[in-house]
């Protein structure tokens, strides 16, 4: 029987829960012994009693949870102290940020923990149900538009009144990945006039299908990776993008930037000069603020004002709708566990030759086993 531990998130700012009572119930019915840290779901509306009813044991001893667990399921990466508490040979599944957390990855390796990084789940049809990055990014796209609308000094839809007609607000979305497309859809549902740009011209049809306009900027050869991510632009291409979108930014009421490069610093898309061209009272949401920022002057975790423009860099976007974010992440996590669950032996097994695990398993049996991360660390 596999012992599964589900701890609270260490950050008080993150109210998400890694596993909901519904999915805990599925795990216990599959034969797992599940232990949940008391208060796991309180921040997102799941009281301890619901976890008890799902068959989980509750504990306030966090250290004992880690020391006895065969499998740890959580959202955010562990601390180095928590890694030291894990049982050798245990499996740990969470976000890890392996490109930037080498010390943590090496600690997991040295502890002989099999560490799965949820960021590294491949974007394939079979792995789609486990793709936590996409599920959380979709919520982030919605949240960013709502936050911008709340800060804007005007309404988004067109409105005809006895005193005259109010024109719809203009929204410009940079990046048409999962978050960007959801931002476009949300802004359109709220009645805004939406324009979007992406370095991958192939997504223009998706943008237009949502009722938005696609801004054409000739950057030359760009393309995308096998996983659907945009390639990093050259400095010349980035300069052309900044110049080509400057006019659209200047006349927009809301600008939402979603350009992130996995494992690398995000590109600077909105310069201070472009910012100064915007109308006072306009709003920019910088999705990448916490990893370096798309907007010059944005501050990670804060809302600031520059030249009369509000720049939102709050971060933890999906966490601001923690109930739905918890449900979606829990489903992703459960689907991953279920994919490798041995029903007869009632335990989680690692199929090392499996294509999904080959992409997201980082350490195993005292070794760094992920080819991408090995290359990064070389």
> What is the arithmetic mean of pLDDT?
94
User: What is the CATH architecture descriptor of the largest domain?
Assistant: 3-Layer(aba) Sandwich
Largest sheet: 8 strands, mixed
Which regions are unreliable across 5 or more consecutive residues at pLDDT < 50? none
The share of residues in extended strands comes to 15-25%
Total DSSP helices: 13
Helix content: 25-40%
Q: Let me know the number of strands.
A: 19
Helix-strand category? alpha/beta
Radius of gyration: 22 Å
Name of the CATH superfamily of the largest domain: NAD(P)-binding Rossmann-like Domain
Strand line-up in the sheet with most strands? 3-2-1-4-5-6-18-19
The global form is globular
Number of folding domains?
A: 2
CATH C-level class of the largest domain is Alpha Beta
Termini separation (Å)? Answer: 38 Å
